[in-house]
User: Which sequence fits this backbone?
């Protein structure tokens, strides 16, 4: 198949490009080489907000795999316009261009952040008060004041974004869903959980926690773990994410389907930090008890629908993948660069 791959120069996009090519697909690369992601290094800049560039790139394309986005939790409200512009306006321009080109299939990189907090047994919606966090009561509490247990999050869980980035990822899904209804096209929205692997961007406020731990270890410092380190996540290796994308590109899904992309083997943040420290013989992590009020406590995905809809099961267990990641190359960044509109 001929696949237009946006965000093709990025951490995940470059792995998707290699995976598609190794399975005989033709890849049309498309990336704006944002300075916030790539510093001064650049290739041919093509922006998803440029409908003319998309009209050219979409010629003969069977399916679009849309990875391009401004990523990360962001720092403050000044980041909101960049998220809205690249992620939401960009997706709207892309969907219009696909309609012009008669291209009816989209694979969309979405994220676990659309859920907000994870799911807890016996509670519909939970909040954590600052007073509880200050007192070291990190698990959300029941009405009776007991710590709640987490459960896996299925795709039909409530969607409650908590950051501008999360809001922009959910809006991408909503634009894509509306596009399927308007055009009859099909969308697979892949909700990636914590992705890690070679070429992940280095330590910035916009990069993932695994890269931050690695950067601490490279400085000879122990990884600093917030709360009590028992926050549960699902870490999925980038080669598995690339394969999920290929399976979605090759699938015959109709309408709109959202699918978790995860390893199905949850780990605590302290386990992640310890695995990285041990793999390089570095200092063991320090559990600081510090907290960030916006953070979610546990977010663990159900892998069931990805298996049913795409035939996807992760091949890399976090224990093995994190050991390999501990010494994998990271992508240089320019430091704390705020994304521009
Ligand atoms: N890394 C994760 O853990 C994770 C988790 C969930 C979802 N995602 C999603 O996966 C996708 C890829 O993320 P990544 O981690 O590879 O980030 P990345 O920053 O490495 O890659 C994103 C790429 O998109 C490009 N880009 C941004 N705006 C663009 C625009 N307007 N036009 C063209 N190209 C543009 C950037 O230059 C960059 O190369 C994103 O949609 C992100 O939201 C990532």
Assistant:
């Amino acid at each position: 198949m001929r696949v237009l791959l946006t965000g093709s120069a990025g951490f995940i996009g470059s792995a998707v490009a290699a995976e598609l090519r190794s399975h005989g697909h033709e890849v049309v690369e498309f990336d704006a080489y944002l300075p916030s992601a790539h510093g001064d290094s650049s290739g041919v800049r093509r922006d998803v907000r440029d409908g003319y560039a998309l009209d050219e790139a979409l010629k003969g394309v069977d399916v679009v795999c849309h990875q391009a986005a401004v990523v990360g939790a962001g720092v403050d409200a000044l980041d909101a316009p960049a998220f809205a512009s690249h992620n939401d306006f960009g997706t709207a321009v892309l969907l219009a261009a696909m309609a012009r080109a008669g291209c009816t299939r989209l694979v969309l990189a979405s994220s676990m952040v659309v859920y907000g907090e994870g799911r807890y047994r016996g509670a519909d919606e939970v909040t954590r008060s600052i007073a509880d966090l200050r007192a070291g009561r990190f698990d959300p509490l029941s009405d009776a004041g007991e710590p709640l247990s987490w459960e896996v999050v299925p795709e039909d869980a409530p969607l409650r974004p908590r950051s501008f980035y999360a809001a922009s990822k959910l809006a991408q899904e909503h634009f894509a869903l509306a596009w399927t209804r308007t055009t009859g096209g099909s969308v697979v929205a892949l909700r990636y959980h914590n992705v890690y692997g070679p070429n992940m961007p280095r330590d910035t406020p916009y990069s993932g926690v695994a890269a931050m731990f690695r950067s601490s270890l490279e400085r000879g410092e122990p990884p600093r773990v917030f709360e009590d380190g028992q926050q549960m996540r699902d870490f999925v290796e980038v080669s598995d994410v690339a394969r999920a994308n290929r399976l979605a590109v090759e699938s015959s899904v109709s309408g709109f389907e959202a699918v978790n992309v995860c390893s199905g083997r949850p780990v605590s943040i302290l386990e992640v930090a310890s695995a990285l420290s041990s793999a390089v013989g570095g200092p063991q992590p320090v559990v600081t008890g510090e907290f960030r009020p916006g953070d979610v406590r546990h977010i663990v995905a159900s892998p069931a629908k990805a298996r049913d809809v795409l035939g996807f099961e992760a091949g890399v267990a976090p224990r093995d993948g994190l050991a390999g990641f501990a010494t994998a190359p990271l992508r240089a960044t320019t430091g704390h660069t705020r994304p521009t509109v």
